[in-house]
Design goal:
Blueprint (H helix, E strand, L loop, with lengths): L5 E5 L6 E2 L10 E5 L5 E5 L6 E5 L2 E5 L1 E4 L4 E4 L2 E4 L36 E3 L6 E3 L4
Parallel strand pairs: 1-2
Antiparallel strand pairs: 1-3, 3-4, 4-7, 5-6, 5-8, 8-9, 10-11
């Protein structure tokens, strides 16, 4: 049985795919890598929205399956779905072309004292847990 992992995309330094661009929320979206090479993308309640380019128009998405070769937009930042393939690499070798830095291994879901990230059970939004 294989495990499914959600990768966090956003401006926060703890994101798996950090994007330092205007219009990108700190915890903007999640991506789940699929066996066919595509991804399941979920917007995390971002103010700038998440979009996929289909039929020559940007379509807003809350959750959607996206295929290789499609274009995504997080806020004003456009990216090819294939660029997310860096998430499939082992953590030690990941490089983020959007920032040129090594991607981190942030776990999202259950509260994590080390990283301080939690999911709002009502909205699905990724939030930073207050420090105690």
């Amino acid at each position: 049985m294989s495990r499914v992992r959600a990768y966090l995309i956003g401006r926060h330094v703890r994101c798996d795919y950090p994007i330092d661009a205007e219009g990108v929320a700190e915890r903007h979206a999640e991506a789940i890598a699929l066996a066919d090479g595509g991804y399941h993308i979920t917007d995390c309640g971002s103010p700038g929205g998440t979009f996929v380019l289909r039929d020559s128009q940007w379509q807003p998405i809350q959750q959607a399956f996206v295929a290789r070769g499609e274009q995504l937009r997080f806020g004003d930042f456009e990216i090819d779905v294939d660029a997310l393939d860096v998430l499939r690499e082992p953590p030690s070798g990941r490089r983020n072309p959007a920032r040129g830095g090594v991607l981190t291994q942030a776990r999202v879901g259950a509260p994590n004292a080390e990283q301080g990230l939690v999911r709002d059970p009502q909205t699905g939004e990724i939030l930073e847990r207050p420090h105690r």
